Amino acid sequence: YEDEQVEIVINATAEGALRRLREQPIHLVITGLRLPDMTGIQLMDRIHDAEHRIPVLVTGCMDTLDGIIE
Question: Is 25 left (phi over 0), alpha (psi -120 to 50) or beta?
C-alpha cells in the first residue's frame, strides 16, 4: 500500500529488515515475536544497537508470561 503519506514495506526475515533499514528511511517497525532467523526481541535489540532511533512494536502470543516478559 502506498499513497502520499504511507508506504508499507514487508520483509520475510529479520536480516532482510535490517538490510532494508540500511537502505532507506523507516519510521516504524512492526514485527512478530517469532521470526525464521531470530526473535522479534533480538531484532529490536539489533535495530537499537545500530543506533536507529525508531519505535519497534513486537507482537505475538506465548503460552506463558516467561516468554513475554523479558
Answer: beta
